[in-house]
Amino acid sequence: MRAVQIVEESGPEGALALAELPEPEAVHPLSPGAGVLVEVHAAGVSFPELLQTRGEYQLKPPLPFVPGSEVAGVVLSASEGASVKPGDRVAAFCALGGWAETAVAPEFFAFPLGSLDFAQGAGLILNYHTAYFALKLRGRLGGGETVLVHGAAGGVGTASLQVAKGLGARTIAVVSDEAKARVASAAGAEEVVLLGEGWKDEVLERSGGGVDLVLDPVGGDRFTDSLRSLREGGRVVVVGFTGGSIPEVRVNRLLLRNTEVIGAGWGAYVMGKPELNREIGAAIGRMAEEGHVAPIVGERFPLERAAEALKLLDERRATGKVVLELRADA
Questions:
Q1: Across 138-156, average pLDDT
Q2: Are strands 70-78 and 89-93 parallel, antiparallel or unpaired?
Q3: N or C terminus: which one in the chain shows less Cβ crowding within 10 Å?
């Protein structure tokens, strides 16, 4: 099978190589004896893969290895008792090995695609499961609350807007330019605010005095103003630091309005919890059936141009979900 490997830790332009490899067995280390083998039609491109090309991600298998955490395709084989069967169209999370023509996932991380296409399925699990975990399970988001989403034109951002709407919340998107504002609006944002010197004041005005929850996958120097944009009892949920720098919290600010800063580390938390993954998958599936969840696909690249896909992320030019197309129907 064709696959892309990370062969050195020199960044996206020099780290990748196309290879011909044997197909994997239908066994996954997260669930030995209970794997799902998938014929990959589309694979997601995400920030962890970018970090892996530099050796900066917590998951560091020995070189060379096939990256790629999420795929969409057709089930080739499935262990007894799996919720999917051969021939089913699925979205699957494999942690590693997704940038290949065949990949294997734990049975509890393979979900029916329903009406979504393969490219959308390649952006379903990492972003949407993260969004649900961050908003509902960690952030305790309730219907009628107002959510501010940073990086709202990216993969996690667009997913968070749609999941928040599915949970009955009002959404405000913060983006850096007009093109990204259009993407956020297409993802369902009810209000869009351009990032600039006065963004926090505009959020306070549009929200009537503050938001209930801020979803922040970016970090950096906007974090203090995120705290200031909360209403009394509000929460900032930290998902990541794609902006590069990790902000520090002056905890006296939390006392002033009884606010919270909450960490949401989806991957490490859910890996050993099959039932939780099934629960989140079912919730996202319902939202898709109801029309709330429909992943926005951005740039598409063939497998051999995976380095270009990572460079798009590295330069912060990506909107929606960046996807590798391995078959013509992706």
A1: 95
A2: antiparallel
A3: N
